[in-house]
Amino acid sequence: MEPSKPSTGSPPAEDRSVIRYNARLGMLFFLIYLVIYASFVLLCTFRLDLMSRPWIGGVNVAIWYGFALIGGAFVLASAFLMLCKK
Amino acid sequence: MAITIFLFFVGIVLAMSFYLARKAKSASGYFAAHGEIGWFVNGIAFAGDYLSAASFLGICGLVAFYGFDGFLYSIGFLAGWVVALFVIAEPIKRLGKYTFADALNSQFNSRGITLAAAFSTMIVSIFYLIPQMVGAGTLLKALLKLPEKMWHGVDLHHALGVVVVGSIVMLIVVTAGMVSTTWVQFIKGSMLVGFCTMLTIAILARGIHKDVQPSALDASTGSLNYIGTTPPSPRQVAGIAGDGDSTGSLGPMQFISAVGKSDIIEWKKDPKVANTWHGKVVKGSSLLAPGEYYTGIRSDDLMKKLDFISLMLALFCGTASLPHILIRYYTVKDAAAARKSTVVGIGAIGFFYVLTLFIGLGAMVSGKLDPDTNLAATNLAQTFGDIPFAIITAIAFTTILGTVSGLILAAAGAMAHDLIETVMGYNMTDHVKVRTAKIASLGVGVIAIALGILFRTFNVSFLVAWAFAVAASANLPAIVMLLFWRHTTRAGMIASILTGTITSVGWLLLTKDAFEKVYGLDPAKALAPFSNPGLVTIPIAFVVLIVVSLLTENRREQAVVIHRA
User: What distance in Å separates the CA atoms of residue B129 and residue B444, rounded to the nearest whole number?
Assistant: First the structure.
């Protein structure tokens, strides 16, 4: 039996446009999240005073930001799912 | 009782594996579950695969001992899924068949790429296996209430736990394959999230109580010292906001706020005087701010700050580079199902990671911690009774079984499908290929057992961060550039994978942690300037790929850039 090879044939033109659209959308969402995540890391590293400050309900900014990053990932992922073609 | 419940859970896992083994006779069934797993089941199985010993035991332990810094792992581990979903999921599904090397090699049909990818898969899988095995040994030791029993620098009771888990997992993998692994992960992922939700509700209902050793405070000097044959809990609540000794039931954010307003004692054993511990009172607000574990954040030392940034980079980039996560994209039927299952996975994993903060803080204020950070979650469960303890321990154990099964499967696939068939050119029947993978599983399992015994003193989350750094350095540059840079060549990919793997592993072997805890050498003599290599080795792998690709571009072997097709 021949060794299994992945399918590498070019997709039809309609599929290519869908692939391109989904990929660009994914990249846009990725960049949005990257900026938010990188800001979090840099604030933790260089603006500890800001991240330690108590905020809503007496809980500090760092914890709220952490929850936002976790919740935000799910929100963006759900939006991506709805906006993707096919 | 605890052991009976524990054996019941493990028995169910094994019974399922044997039953489902019937569906995995062919290579397609063994490696990819025939691509027939539904997207919801696969999504929860993603959570089962991902919520390993590191997530459950390691993060909860770090939060219990160091507060917010443990939660940083939760944030970083989840953020990595964004890369997986938005950048990697669809193309990986479209290009591959059984292993991640299939996808990398889809444009080139190169044995060199397959060999390099198989090599990196083996290394990453083994690095990821180490913390799982360390956690397994710790758990079994706690369940059986076995004390430390040292022999030539090896804790025999911990080693026993590692050997037992290793043996069970090898039995699972050799018996079944991807079908059973997926269903085990689905059930385990569901149970883990469900029981941790119940544990969190119990923590909030109990609130926070003052809990301090009555003889601890030396009134004449004002210092905290404890002398006794039973060690104090490494963290205890010395004071809470307001009057009284207890807060009563609290809402989720009220609980975090109340921890912030509490005073926590950190006990440390006197290295010179037997049965003596010295305490230090720390403000809860300090524990809930970054920098209690990664102390470099609070210093002016740039290298220490870079270590933290490097860790967060590795966590962000690592998920989308883990072979045992990537192969799960081959168990669903198409790219849309891959996308949907990732979103389900992100929901379940994200929810669980929110719980880790509450479970960790609950353990911190429970007053019943063990000095081993990896046991915080089970110590906490024990404060609610033997049954919760048994259930949580059994879930943690099956967590490890499932994750280790997936990892060994990924490594076995790399060896049988990539290395022996594609690189060495042996034409194998389906039956022989599956049998070869099973033999490879045994080899990987033995290596994992040995390393699990060797690394027993590390926190498991810390070790997983190392695996993420190796995965991100070895695999991510090749995946991303294959998809998005039309000048990528075969030679560039091979050079990048090998460079990323070798530099990141080499770096880890030269860190102060390895010097101190593995070789027993003076950590000051370590050559690596900080612990996590990602910040250096990921960019190096990218640069190597670009330079080598540009140098070999005229050989007409570039990738057809998928997203520009």
Answer: 9
- The reply to whether A78 touches chain B by the CB within 8 Å rule is yes
Which A residues 3-32 touch B at CB under 8 Å? 3-8, 10-11, 16, 19-20, 22-24, 26-27, 29-30
**Alpha-carbon gap, residue B409 to B49, rounded angstroms:** 12
* Mutant choice from A2, A29, A37 vs B, greatest count of B C-beta within 10 A: A37
Q: What tens digit of pLDDT does each residue of B499-547 get?
A: 999 999 999 999 998 888 878 888 888 999 988 999 999 999 999 999 9
Which DSSP string do the residues of B224-249 spell out, in sequence order?
Answer: EEEE-SSPPPSEEEEE-SSSSSB--S
Q: At B517, which helix (H) or strand (E)?
A: none
B143: amino acid identity, one letter: L
pLDDT digit string, tens, across residues A13-69: 557 788 888 888 999 999 999 999 999 999 999 999 999 999 999 899 999 999 999
**Strand partners for B268:** B278
> Using an 8 Å Cβ cutoff, are A62 and B288 in contact?
yes
| Residue B555 tokens, joined | 């050989």
**Block residue for tokens 């169910």:** B12
Give the ipTM of the model, two decimals please: 0.86
Instruction: Measure Cα distances from B24 to B17, B39, B174, B435 in Å.
Output: 10, 19, 11, 12
pTM of the model: 0.86
Rounded Cα distance between B408 and B125, Å, is 7
Nearest beta carbon to residue B71 from set A19, A66, A84: A66
Start-to-end C-alpha separation, chain A: 34
